Amino acid sequence: MPKSKRSKVVHMTNVNKKTREHKERLFENIRECVPQYQHCFVFSIDNMRNTYLKGVRQELSDSRLFFGKTKLMARALGHGPEDSYADNIYKLTPYLRGTVGLIFTNRQPEQLLPFLENLAADKVDFARAGATATRGFVVPYGTVYATGGEVPAEHDVPIGHTLEPELRRLGVPVRMVKGRVVLEEGPEGGDAGGGYVVCKEGDVLDSRQTRLLKLFSICLSEFKIKVLAYWSAATSEVTPVDPEAMDGVEGDNDEGSD
């Protein structure tokens, strides 16, 4: 049959699945780094953001950073003394759970640890569904302002009237009064503090709450890097740094990169 000349829809969101060759290359790259660098660090990330991780890579241009499948990284390091790629490096494998990665570097631990802590400082973003609220947020009754009462009214501006329908759709009891969006007092979401409770500290946020937080420009997710442990070639020993950071972490991270 002749080839069809009909236009075909090509979805730009399609992502090529990681091939076996890509996984084997990641495996080999990790093993190549073991004899090339003096230290191997296992780190975890809270509130992962690709933009911030890219910045970490750029700052550690003299090192190698791997953020991939934990099972593959564990296989590259080894699961026990018999298949450990270097003396005792297999002892890092128990730390490879959850959203974690590896850093191979020649920087000394006393230099890298504070560097990573400072690098992740003040990197905040809007929370995503499933995140835990680090603090509460209440929109005061009366005229609704752009920051929802986070700054004094004299330094804020009333929220745009075009957002009134969306606030109502999200369950906030607002109405238009003389061209301004006003929050009415009522049983819905009210508390003794006099306002609509968007979230309380410790809440596991849903999509409705995260949308409201974003509307009021409230950032509750803080990008953090925690070093769990590191291996040193000179001593062939693994030093725990923050093992408690793994508490409650389950599963494996499925995205691989080099």
In short:
The chain is of the alpha+beta class.
Structural class by secondary-structure content: alpha+beta
Strand order of the largest sheet: 2-3-1-11-12
What general form does the structure show?
elongated
Beta content: 15-25%
Spatial extent as radius of gyration: 24 Å
Quaternary form: single chain
Structure description:
It is a single chain. The protein is an alpha+beta fold and 258 residues long. It has 6 helices and 12 strands. The strands form 4 sheets. It has a 5-stranded antiparallel beta sheet with strand order 2-3-1-11-12, sandwiched between helices. β7 (174-177) and β8 form a beta hairpin. α1 (20-33) crosses α3 (70-77). The longest helix has 14 residues, at 20-33. The two termini are 45 Å apart. The model is unreliable at 248-258 (pLDDT under 50).
List the helices and strands and how they pair.
Elements: H1 20-33, E1 39-46, H2 50-59, E2 64-66, H3 70-77, E3 100-105, H4 109-119, E4 124-125, E5 137-140, E6 142-143, H5 164-169, E7 174-177, E8 180-183, E9 195-199, H6 207-215, E10 221-222, E11 224-232, E12 237-240
Antiparallel strand pairs: 1-3, 1-11, 2-3, 4-10, 5-9, 6-8, 7-8, 11-12
Helix pairs in contact: 1-3
Characteristic key phrases:
elongated, 3-stranded antiparallel β-sheet, 258 residues, disordered C terminus, alpha+beta
